[in-house]
DNA sequence: CGTATACTTGATCGTTATCAAGGCCTGTGG
DNA sequence: CCACAGGCCTTGATAACGATCAAGTATACG
């Protein structure tokens, strides 16, 4: 019921879902680039730095974070394999990008990326679609933060991280929970304690099962 | 101090600030269009409808809202004069757009707008900038909802609605508060009671003055 | 084996939501 | 002109949810 509730009010986080299928074009821009590997916790780019590169995630999860003078931290989003970051049209990065666990990336110069997209009739709408997905995702976060409780938030995240099954969504899905509680909490606008408690409750009521930090 | 605090953690809501100066290009696309007037509370377009038009706000404030089956409502954003909506690259509108008070708009067909932007070297980066501002704005909301208290939220909104003074920001700025408490609350992720109380407190401690629903 | 890091759990407090009532303004009809 | 209804806003009392403070327990790492 918990999960059902979360689903019913979850208009989106479609982004990840829609990704795998239809974006060979943009992705192909990166295919010639060498794969770079970043270790757990390494910073890929910094908030406010000139946005020189655009990245495609090949493996692992990238966390975007904004840190404030008072130490509080917000995670506007995560990027999963097949997604891009550094793409948002602006001169500077909109947050710190950091590797959660090991991450493999391909990069393109920003100018090269923009010119390629700018020139190609086929890529332009595709890039627009990507931006649109980012907008929808941002809006979903707004909804999540504006009017969902801790349980709904955690469910949302778990569903977003769940491998996107095409049609049949059997009840038994295993989620590689490759992020720490701190990341969960920052992303969901909760404290680690609350995130932890909520996870415990979800396990307690049978909504999820733990298998060594997995569900 | 309240206000100062709010300002220090407010990385953005720059959008409105940056608007008035540098966007004659996109705006000029609309200049030939007739002005349409919508009355207080009228719906301009609906969530999920095919996005047939792009709008420029000429006067008044437009509210974008998402309503859920359980009646709860979220306001992802407001659009002020000089801003555009319906532009986000996607087939459908991302929310209900409604007039707060009287609103004057110009509209362009979506296809016309996209083609014009697509064709023109000068408009493309300008449109990208606009999308970027929307992203920054969305991110600012995320921060606001994730880790600000009621007082900071209300201050943020007031500052966002404050007429953007170029250089000198004298302490005495009058804000046309053309929206109801309900709108404030939905935008800020608060209840109307809390919004009202917070306004009362701000008046009480001298941060703002009331002049018949103005500050 | 010991330290560090991350996670869990408990107790308490504070902020905000919720429920409830009352005040103010506007417009309408007698 | 007054009475009344309906919004919208304010204020109060109470309660719930999550933050905070504080141990305590796993797990990883050198």
Total E-strand runs of chain A: 6
Tally of helical segments of chain A? 8
The low-confidence parts of chain A are 1-22
Biggest interface, residues from each chain: A-B, 34 and 35 residues
Based on secondary structure, the structural category of chain A is alpha+beta
Biggest sheet statistics of chain A: 6 strands, antiparallel
Oligomeric organization of the protein chains:
homodimer
Helices and strands in order:
The structure is a homodimer.
Chain A: H1 2-8, H2 14-19, H3 24-30, E1 36-38, E2 43-45, E3 53-67, E4 73-79, E5 84-85, E6 96-109, H4 110-119, H5 123-147, H6 150-161, H7 181-188, H8 192-204
Antiparallel strand pairs in A: 1-6, 2-6, 3-4, 3-5, 3-6
Helix pairs in contact in A: 1-6, 7-8
Chain A binds a DNA duplex (30 and 30 nucleotides) through helix 8.
Describe the protein's architecture and organization.
2 copies of one chain form a homodimer. The first copy, chain A, has 215 residues and is of the alpha+beta class. Chain A has one domain: Jelly Rolls, CATH 2.60.120.10. Chain A has helices at residues 2-8, 14-19, 24-30, 110-119, 123-147, 150-161, 181-188, 192-204; strands at 36-38, 43-45, 53-67, 73-79, 84-85, 96-109. In chain A, a hairpin with a 5-residue loop joins strand 3 (53-67) and strand 4 (73-79). In chain A, helix 1 packs across helix 6. The A-B interface holds A 8-9, 11, 66, 68-70, 72, 74, 76, 88-90, 94-95, 118, 124-125, 128-129, 131-132, 134-136, 138-139, 141-143, 145-147, 189 and B 8-9, 11, 66, 68-70, 72, 74, 76, 88-90, 94-95, 118, 124-125, 128-129, 131-132, 134-136, 138-139, 141-143, 145-147, 186, 189. The structure holds a DNA duplex (30 and 30 nucleotides).
